[in-house]
Amino acid sequence: MTDIRTYLKNYDGPELRLMEVCGTHTAQISRCGIARMLSPAIRLISGPGCPVCVTVTSYIDRLVALSLQPDTTVLTFGDLLRVRGSRSSLNDAKAAGGRVRMLYSPLDALRAAAGEKDKCFVFAAVGFETTAPVYAMLLEEAEEAGLENLKVLTSLKTMPPVIDWICKNQGGVDGFLAPGHVSVVTGSRIFEPLSQKYGIPFVVSGFTGEEILASLYALVRRRGKAGVLNLYPSAVTEGGNAAAQKAVERYFAPCGAAWRGMGVIPGSGLALREEYARFDAGSLGLDDDRSLNPECRCAQVLTGVVSPAECPLFGGACTPRTPQGACMVSQEGSCYNYFIGGRAAQ
Amino acid sequence: MKITMAHGSGGKATAELISEIFEKTFDDPVLSQMGDSAVVPGAAKIAVTTDSFVVSPLFFPGGDIGRLCVCGTVNDLLMSGAEPRYLTCGFILEEGAETGDLRKIAASMAATAGEAGVRIVAGDTKVVEGSGGLYINTAGVGFLRGGTQIGPDRCREGDAILLSGNLGDHHAAILSRRMGIENTIRSDCAPLTEMVGGLLRGGVEVHAMRDVTRGGLGTVLNEFAEASGCRMELDEGKIPVSAQVKGFCGILGLDPLYMGNEGKMIAVVAPQDAPGALALMRKSRYGENASVIGRVGPRGERLVLLKTTVGGTRVVGPLYGEGLPRIC
Q1: What are chain A's domains?
Q2: Which chain B residue's Cα is nearest to A340?
Q3: Which of A201, B44, B246, B326 is surrounded by the fewest CB atoms within 10 Å?
Q4: Domains of chain B by range and CATH?
Q5: What is the least distance, in Å, from the CA of A171 to any CA of chain B?
Q6: pLDDT digits (tens, 9 = 90+) for A54-111
């Protein structure tokens, strides 16, 4: 480990831009102070791997509208509450009399719906390949229990198409710290075509500080070469979790999805299959993406074009207390972590 | 028996409730006078504080709202260098609350007050509509020893920062109960009377003390940095967190630095007194895992800097956004 630290600190090869696409990696990199342990020639950039951050405003607007409808309750995870849509956030809606309930587990949604069958419950289903199986399981249980009053508003996204989009449209990424949690479900093999196509290394990483350092070391050593290395073998296999993949496939099919700042990327989302449309609370066509503050640079931050500190609002008008964009709201957001971890100071 | 609106009427039902549960359980001659206010012997300088307790659930592993409402106020008095002497308690009961629960809570308050060396000398009870909830306010009075000068503005470069034990136990215990997660994590809820008494009587030059409650260690030390104008330097590897709480935090994405505690304190002491202070803390009740977690850095940067276990450094900001609601 000492050798790895020394190597990363003293690296003096060509300048490298390495992207972590997973929000949990972003948070851990900040938490461990990793950015300051690297040579100035290694630049870490945060990608679009925080599900809350990539959610577009029209999706929030739809949730806000649903919460204000009679006999309807919106169920959501905590981070989404403070993200502003084009006018207000779910927290604002709650203060205005909207029904919004924060959950810790999607399965709590089953209890809520079973408890009040005359009311409608809408679960805000955001997430990546990691969380999609949980929603599939939720729908399976809702079906079995015959619950007609539980619906989902989906904004589910998949990683490979957005990584492809970034490489094609932004370029300049010399290697990817591939998302560990996503890979548990998809398998590490899923990144092979992208690695070959762009001739850059992918390393699947675990989540401890040491695991991230080891993965960065592997990326630097493999610079300029294609190939996927799995450094999280305790949880990730080449083929992934077949049962989870099957559950997702049963309920969801690929669709175009809107990403904050990137627009609609074909095939980058998961939508309910037609035969399960009765569970849908109106998820289609929520593509509109308008930041509340026109100066907010979330879009460029998410694609690694600018670092959070380069946004004119960062640390001034936009802080975790007064977030302007989603990246400052979520605990996995790039801006939040730069701010909290003092990563901007490096 | 369930609490009804009649118990808050101020009439016979109220009187019965008070004498049956509170007067009997707290058993104090000043309280039993049932005057409009308690008359107690005075001192030259007193410390006064108040705190309200709305924790949910009322009973949790390691404690209950009764123990909590005594510890919270007692610890606040202790941290200003005062010796806690008297408490008052105000109960707000929702219709439907169980008198059996109230009895248990009162017993827990009496036991904790006994342990902490304070007397409960005045109280009030109100009943409101609702669904069986129960809230308690306690106020406390403490006497200051002559010459006690303690405050975060007195932190000086080179001072040692001591933490009295593992972080996050209370927060994790409450959250586990609410989420229905089974584990053996217990709240650390405790009065720190013995520990603080030991430090002050043991001749340690204490510059600042604070109990590490809502907002967690990160928030407390940012307040110290702000008040003293000094940088606070921490060593992550020295900050004690139990393996179980560490695992719990890992799963839920929580940071122990921002988790609430109810029986932990920070003491900033003169550098030469650090070994002695640590020994005193470890010897006292609830202090067996105490640790020197860092030092006060130079004046100038009012921030908290953490050296991480992997060898990096990062700034620890205060808690932003919402912590866990109804934790105390």
Answers
A1: 2-50+169-230 (3.40.50.11750), 57-158+242-279 (3.40.50.11740)
A2: B317
A3: B44
A4: 5-144 (3.30.1330.10), 152-316 (3.90.650.10)
A5: 29
A6: 899 999 999 999 999 999 999 998 788 888 888 889 988 988 899 999 887 777 899 9
A263: pLDDT strictly greater than 60: yes
Say whether B85 sits in a helix, a strand or coil: strand
Residues linked to residue A252 through DSSP beta bridges, in sequence order = A272
Q: Which residues on chain B are in Cβ contact (under 8 Å) with A213?
A: 310
Q: Which of B179, B307, B311 sits opposite A5 (nearest CB)?
A: B311
DSSP annotation of B98? B
Instruction: Look up residue B109 and give its amino acid.
Output: M
Calculate Rg over the CA atoms of chain B.
21
CB contact under 8 A, A37 and B179: no
3-state secondary structure of A82: helix
Q: Do B320 and A342 touch (CB under 8 A)?
A: no
For residue B206, list its beta bridge partners.
B269
If pLDDT is split at 50, 70 and 90, which confidence band does A305 have?
confident
| Cα torsion angle, A260, A266, A270, A275, sign | positive
Does pLDDT of B124 surpass 80?
yes
Q: Which residues of A fall within a CB distance of 8 Å from B315? A: 340-342, 345
* Cβ-defined contact of B179 to A5 (cutoff 8 Å): no
Radius of gyration of chain A (CA): 20
State residue B144's pLDDT score.
Answer: 86
Mean pLDDT for B53-59 is 95
pLDDT given for residue A346 in this prediction: 40
Average predicted confidence (pLDDT) for chain A: 91
Asked if B295 and B267 touch (Cβ cutoff 8 Å), the reply is: no
Full DSSP string of B26-76 = H--HHHHT--SS------SSEEEEEEEE--SSSEETTEEHHHHHHHHHHHH
Describe the crossing of helices A209-221 and A23-32 by its angle, rounded to 10 degrees: 100
Chain A residue numbers touching B253 (CB-CB < 8 A): 24, 27, 331
Give me the amino acid identity at A190: I
